[in-house]
Amino acid sequence: MKMNEKVRKAFSTQINREFYSAFLYLQMSDWLNQNSFPGAAHWMYIQYMEELSHAQGLFEYLQMRGVKADIDRIDKPEPETWENVQAVFEGALKHEQQITAWINELVDIAAEAGDKAAVLFLDWYVIEQVEEEANQEDNCDNVSSASGQPGPLRMWDKQMGTRVFVPAVIPYLE
Ligand code: OFO
């Protein structure tokens, strides 16, 4: 089934947004490292890798459908600096909420075009966003309860450093 042009463009835009997410988290990882949170920096670096895999999954799907992916410039991630560690994770949560809204829009565009295959493929991304938001909510809660207390903050950072990268297995990709 040939992909509708509007759906193809919307997928391409989302690829760019996922790369933007990766760059934003890479920038957050750098800030965390510069501000003596090596564990949280590691956690954010793994998040950067996850975002790359989200972008790659969408790209591979367009390849599978035999249509062009529009590869565009990635905007500079903003902001470049944060007031404190809590602000970093609040920013990440806000960003994930925006990504969820964009994924839902993408599903609506595919559904309006009657592209059931694309809607089915995007199911994984819809569910993934539930996890993405939940992770960032947990991070916000944990950093907030440790905030201002050097001991608990250090323990939290150490715990963040134990995150292991598990490559995403996105269904329907060959
Ligand atoms: Fe790709 O989910 Fe986060 O942004």
Describe the protein:
The longest helix is centred in the last third of the chain and has 31 residues, at 116-146. With 174 residues, the chain is an all-alpha fold. Helices cover 74% and strands 0% of the residues. The mean pLDDT is 97. It has five helices and no strands. It has helices at residues 5-34, 38-65, 85-112, 116-146, 150-160. The protein has one domain: Ferritin, core subunit, four-helix bundle (Ferritin, Up-down Bundle), CATH 1.20.1260.10. Residues 18, 21, 51, 54, 96, 99, 132 line the site of hydroxy diiron-OXO moiety (OFO).
Summary of the model, kept short:
It is built from 5 helices and no strands.
Secondary structure blueprint with pairings:
Blueprint: H1 5-34, H2 38-65, H3 85-112, H4 116-146, H5 150-160
Helix pairs in contact: 1-2, 1-3, 2-5, 3-4, 4-5
Hydroxy diiron-OXO moiety is lined by residues 18, 21, 51, 54, 96, 99, 132.
Ligands bound here? Answer: hydroxy diiron-OXO moiety
Helical proportion? over 70%
Overall pLDDT, averaged?
97
Radius of gyration: 17 Å
Question: How many E-type strands?
Answer: 0
From the N-terminal CA to the C-terminal CA, the straight-line distance is 17 Å
Strand residue percentage = under 5%
Per the CATH scheme, the topology name is Ferritin
> What global shape is seen?
elongated
Number of structural domains: 1
What's the CATH H-level superfamily name? Ferritin, core subunit, four-helix bundle
Strand-pairing-aware structural class = mainly alpha
Please identify, by name, the CATH architecture. Answer: Up-down Bundle
Order of helices and strands, N to C? HHHHH
- Main beta sheet, described? none
CATH top level assignment = Mainly Alpha
What is the count of DSSP helices, taking H or I runs of 4+ residues?
A: 5
Low-confidence stretches: none
